[in-house]
Amino acid sequence: MAERKQSNEERKIYGVYLQSILTMKVMIPITQVGKNMKQNLEKIISKKTEGKCIAEGFIRPNSVKVIRYSSGTINNENIEFQTVFECMICHPVEGMLVECITKTITKAGVHAEVVDETGNVPITVFIARDHHFTDRKFAEIKENTKIIVSIIGVRFELNDPYICVIGKYVNRKTEHERSDKKRGGDDTKPKLTIGGDEFLEEYEDE
């Protein structure tokens, strides 16, 4: 049997976070400068960034870790430090596939959330019904079920508690069947990656 190659319709699904390295200037009162500088800097950076959106995207809570920091310079009654830290950032882009859980279904469309392994919601998703009038599977979507969405628009502002996206419902089973027809019925199951772990996508026999 010929080796099955993934088509553009069988794109992989990845975790929504990427490990990133950022820099930040941190001011600390002289009275708070002590032995535990790294921990103090991490607390300050975490309070400013975690669980909200910054320019680079949504920062996952409990992910900030200071890598290094400069010697402090006196600035009035404060000490100024230049810090380099790593964190997990969520910044979805157009065309990215995400797995989300449906929350409410209205006449306008479907509202869903991307929920990470610790219960945080970095992304809220809206899927317009107007874009899926001819999709029978879209009409069968129920609340509190997992679906796959392709992102077509992204919006967030500084300090937002999550990123808002507009998405398009992706029926993986339909895409699989369409691809099989193009390849003459090859039934090899494609591998997907979600959050770094691989699994075989399961389809029910019709």
UniProtKB/TrEMBL annotation:
GO terms for cellular component: DNA-directed RNA polymerase complex. Keywords: DNA-directed RNA polymerase, Transcription. InterPro entries: RNA_pol_Rpb7-like_N_sf (IPR036898). Gene3D superfamilies: RNA polymerase Rpb7-like, N-terminal domain (3.30.1490.120). Residues 176-206 are annotated as: Disordered. Residues 176-190 have a biased composition (Basic and acidic residues). This is S1 motif domain-containing protein.
